[in-house]
Write a structure and sequence with these properties.
The protein has about 150 residues and is of the alpha+beta class. The protein has two domains: about 1-75, no CATH class; about 80-149, no CATH class. The chain is built from three helices and six strands. A four-stranded antiparallel sheet has the order 3-4-5-6. Strands 1-2 form a two-stranded antiparallel sheet. A hairpin with a 2-residue loop joins strand 5 and strand 6 (about 105-110). The relative contact order is 0.11.
């Protein structure tokens, strides 16, 4: 039983390294606060979300690069991420389409699979880096295809 249900409290989402407040609001839980932060377009990179219950939160538009998600409940959360060497890659489902964001580029999984080599070449990545990114893209796509959400 959640004893805080319906009781708003002051919640601060802080940077895990500097402890600076990234986002602050009145909410009944950290999950609600994170949803509000994402809706408001807050940059949650480096956020300390250790142990947060993010069950069911749609984090598909959240920048969580460098965020501490250790111990966080991410059950049924629509996001999947990997660090690929130079950038984080985040994937999510949107209307049955798999979207992957790497760095500042956001494409469908199909577009990434088709274009990752050309993009890597245009960004001066080595063959090894391009291959690693290709494997990461295909891994995110395959993992998200398994999800029924």
């Amino acid at each position: 039983m959640d004893l805080t249900k319906g009781i708003d409290m002051k919640i601060q989402i802080k940077n895990r390294f500097t402890l600076a407040v990234i986002f602050e609001c009145q909410a009944e839980s950290m999950r609600v606060a994170v949803k509000l932060a994402v809706s408001a377009g807050a940059d949650l990179s480096g956020a300390d979300l250790y142990g947060a219950n993010l069950y069911g939160a749609n984090l598909s538009k959240a920048n969580l690069s460098g965020a501490n998600l250790s111990g966080a409940n991410l059950s049924f959360t629509v996001v999947f991420g990997l660090y690929l060497g130079k950038h984080f890659a985040f994937g999510w489902k949107k209307s049955k389409e798999i979207i992957i964001k790497i760095g500042c580029k956001e494409l469908t999984a199909k577009q990434w699979v088709k274009e990752f080599k050309a993009i890597g070449k245009s960004e001066s990545y080595t063959k090894e880096e391009v291959d690693r990114y290709g494997r990461g893209i295909k891994f995110i796509e395959s993992e998200l295809k398994k999800r029924k959400d």
